[in-house]
Structures are given as structure tokens and as C-alpha cells.
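User: Batch of two.

Assistant: Item 1 of 2:
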Amino acid sequence: MGAKTARDISGYEFDWLACDGAGHVGFFSTAGGGYAPEAFLRDTDAHSDAIEALLALPGPMKREPETQTFSPFHHTWQLMAERGVFAYDADPNGGPYQLKSAPANPIRVEDLPDSIATVARQNTLKGLDFSGLKVITGELIKTGSQKQDTPMDYDTVIDSLRPAVQRGLSREDAVVALHDAGLTIIYGIKGISQLYGLSIGDAKSVVAGHPVWRGIVKAAEPLHQELEDYAEKMKGGGNPDDL
């Protein structure tokens, strides 16, 4: 058993496996700062062994790279995608995990050898679907769900995304990350404004026009008026918490 604490692995590269609610498999590289789930910390050696076994499997599947990278780890991400696994990398400063390579034909956890599948199932994120997630925050991993009964702490979500924004996270992917973190559209607009230095009007255009929110905006005229009121309030130096 290779039990460790979050402090033990801080600053060091550790990798772990997980599966989502659809049975897809994910490979996560902490980069020395990414969130590490408790199930992984209880036996890091098991994950290392399972990853080694996974990489030893034949890889006939084509990959679809999501980002261009010159990291020395990019070959591992490609190998994972070729074996049907979604590959994510975190940030040394504690930012969220970002998708690095996606499989053309995702493998299901039940199709893996038992020794690998058992380890991946230790981190089953039932409410997530890797096929639709380019950014995964630590909070999403902790809750294991993209849909929250109550929104996460706004400041925590924004702080978790800042390193990724500095590394070039697109506005569109940030909108999805804020949505998946359980923030309302109002606070999604506030977040995009703060993260990218946009005016409230420009941030509103980015958020309200994104597919994850577009249907709601079209279907809810009262919400549209609320957005207009929010923009006007912010122009006058208002506090969004007063809404």
C-alpha cells in the first residue's frame, strides 16, 4: 500500500485513474498541484501499477488531440487516448485539470482488465461525463457531479480557474467550467468579467451566447431582463451580491 497525504505529493508529479458516470475512463496528471482524491491517496502504488498495465495494452484506437503541447508528458497523454482513455493535466499552482487528449473511441471501464478497472472504479465520478468536459476543477472531483443543489463558493471557483486562464484557457471553456461548478448565469457573467478583464456587457455576450446557457436565456424573458438590470447596476458600480 502506498498511502500518502496531499502534502506528501505536493510539488511532485503523480498520476491517477478514474471513471465517470458513463463508464468512460480518465487519466489525471497532478503536475505537482492538481487536486488528488482520497481514494487515490490511500493507495498511490495501486494507481501507478494500473497505469503501467494500461499503457502496456495494445493501442489501435485513433486519438483526437485537444491541445497542442510541447510538454515532455504529451506522449503519455497520446498513448492514453490511443487506448480509449481521456487524458487530463493539472497545474503546478493548483489550477484545474484540462483535457490534453481525447479518444476517438472511448473505452468503457468494464472492458478493461479487472486489475485496472478495480483501481479506476475507486474514483467513480458518477455525475460527470468526460466526453463533455475540457476542464475539471477540484470541486467537481470532490462532489463527483456537474449539477449542484447549491452553488459552490464563488471565490473558490474563480481562484481555481485563474491559473488555467493565465495558461490560455479560452473564454468558452471557462464558461463551461463556471456552469459545471454550479454557478448561476449571473455569477458566470461576473466570473468571466473578472477572469478576462471584460466589461459586464461583453462578458454577458460571451456567457449568454454560449450553448450551455443559450436555451435558458431564450426561454426565460424575466431572466433576460435580470441580466439587463445586472449590467446597468454594474455600470453604476453596484454590487452583484445585492441582486
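Item 2 of 2:
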Amino acid sequence: MTTSPPPVSYDPIQGWAGLTDHRRARIEVPTGSRSGPLAGLLADSGVKLLQPVVAPLRVDLLRFDAFVIARIVGPESSAPEVAHRIGLLWERSRPASRRRCLFALSPGGGLELDGPAPHRVTDDGDVAVVFPGTHPVRISARRPLDVVLFSFEEDEILPLELNPRSTVLTSSACAVLRAVHAYLQTVLQGSTDARYEQTAALRALTGEMARALTRTAHPAPASQRALDLAAEILDAEHANPELTPDRIAVRLGVSRSTLARAFASRGTTLADELRHRRTRTAHRLLVADPTLPTRALAMRSGFRSVSSLERAVLAVLGRPLSDLRSHHG
């Protein structure tokens, strides 16, 4: 039998660190509301409602010790005379809130952020991020109102980090952002059962979503991207004798010297990586069929000549090709 943990309330220093389960809430907010359940729910996260609600809202919330997910949804009507808008102030007066990042996702656009807190917003207003810090920020969203807010402690994404100097936001049409948005919406619709095993699984998945968002907003340096893409080409096409370092550079749209510096930072060269892959392929082919003619072995593993194959085998594997053939024959 699973026992329920004791009630946990917000600690001004540690935040919700003592929360061992997860908490759900759903509030239907009538027009003209500025206080009551909504204000209390927001206050638990250090957020204030800036003006009365002018149209009915539904607010769903899911809280873990280091994560908060909320979805604010307005009425479906798109009549121009209905000004669907909500304004929030994240004061960040609590020490725990200063260690938090916040993503706001609104596929319909309409997000606006203001205030001294470091933040970024896409041109379409469909994605926004607030970075850890001490300054407050005002967050507003307008019709069509359907916003997901995802807040997490910066320690949860280590060794990654979010900082305003290197963050580049992409549109919500990005595949990763669509997947994260779908997950956050789905997890908010779950049951109210907060058993420990469910909390652990949901918390782990939610942490992965935070890291996925961070990677999307903090792209790898150009040199790293070049290395990754070059490695994909090498893995898939090294057995093609026409593949050369120059052709890889052309396909990646970078200079040969740029690619050379990227591989040098890893203590290797593109030519060496290509030769190593071709040699390992030749070795596997020889093990599978020791009777394979040497010329066919060279061509099928990407070498232009038998002599190139023989030199590579000796350099990479430390043994003459003849020794390998006799050993596996």
C-alpha cells in the first residue's frame, strides 16, 4: 500500500524542494476575475495577475519539486470585439525563483515580454524564454489565447545552460518544440493520482523536455555542427571511392580549412577518419569472406587501389593485409 507524503508548502529559500509527489490543479476563471482561486494559484509561483480577466479562462497546472507546467486557455471564439488577453508579473522576489528558467509556448503567437529581466521572444511571438536572474518580467498573451508556461530550475539542465548571450530561439514549428509542446499539453491532462512511481516517471520525462528545449535554444557552435554532419556522411558513405575531404566540405558548405580546424580540435584529421572507417569496413568484409579478391575488397571498402588498401591496413591495424587474410582464411 502506498502512503501519502505529508503536505508540503512553499519554502521561500528552498522553493518546492521538499515536494516528493506531484500536484495538479484546474481552475475555471469567470470573466472579470482578479482574485480568488486563480490569484492563489499564481501566488504559489510568485506570479501576479496584472488586470481583471475579460473573458473566461481555464488554467491547468502541474507542479513538481523543480518543474512547473501551466496552460492558460481562453474561449474558442475569435470575434474581434472580444479582447482575449492576460497579463502576468513574475516578480522573482523569492530566492528560489531566481534560479529558474521559463519557456512560454504559444503556437498562435501573441506573446509579449517586458521588463528588466533578460529574455528573448521570437518575431512571431510564439516562443519566449526568461533566463535565471533577479529581475522581474511581465508576460502577456493575446487572442487566440492558448499558452503553455514551463518553468524549471537551472540545475535540472546541467551541464547545459541557458544564457542570453548565446540563446537563439526557433519557431514553434520546429519539430522539437512541437514535440515538447505536445508532451506538456498531454501531461497536464493526466489523472490526479500522485503516486511516487508515477511522479518519478513523469519527473524524468519532464526533465528531458527541459533539456530538449535548452538544446534547441542553445545551438552547438558551427564547428561542432560541421563535425556532426561530417561524421554522418562518413558513416553512411565512406565505402564510396568518390568520397573525399574536399567533396565533404563542399556538401557542408564550409571551406576545407574550416573543416580541418574542426577535426584538429579533436586531435584528428578528416582524411584519417575516412581511412579508419574504410579500413574497418575492409576488415569486416575480409572476416566475412576470406576468399574475397583483394581488388574487390579495396573497391567495396572505398579504396581506389590495392596499394592504398594495403598501406591503410598496415597503418591502422598494424599488420600487413596478407597476415590478416591468412589469419582469417
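Confidence is low (pLDDT under 50) at residues 1-7, 78-83.
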